[in-house]
Design a protein that fits this description.
With 97 residues, the protein is α+β, with helices and mostly antiparallel strands. The protein is 65% helix and 14% strand. Strand 2 and strand 3 form a beta hairpin. The termini are far apart.
């Protein structure tokens, strides 16, 4: 019985992870961060959406442990913390690009 509870919890965590990735802007953020870390302003400029919107998407990815961040002076730069995000991105896009 205990294994079933742990398995259920793991499946819930996986579903939450996938939900966090399940938006085109968040997938684009992952794509850009695969190349190298980026600051919020750069991400907004590249993707073409306002900084508050980028920050909201980054917050979702951060809350699920997918992204990490470092302060560099007055700038906050983001990087991929959970490498499963890269694996999922690559798997989903390998036939597309």
């Amino acid at each position: 019985m205990e294994m079933d509870v742990k398995k259920e919890e793991a499946l819930v965590d996986i579903a939450e992870f996938l939900k966090a990735l399940g938006h085109p802007v968040r997938l684009k953020i992952i794509e850009l961060l695969i190349e190298h870390k980026q600051c919020v302003k750069n991400l907004g400029d590249i993707i073409g959406i306002p900084q508050p919107n980028i920050s909201q998407h980054l917050s979702i990815l951060r809350s699920k442990g997918i992204l990490g961040w470092r302060r560099e002076g007055s700038i906050i730069c983001y990087y991929i913390k959970d490498k499963r995000a890269v694996e999922v991105y690559n798997l989903l896009t390998k036939e597309v690009f």
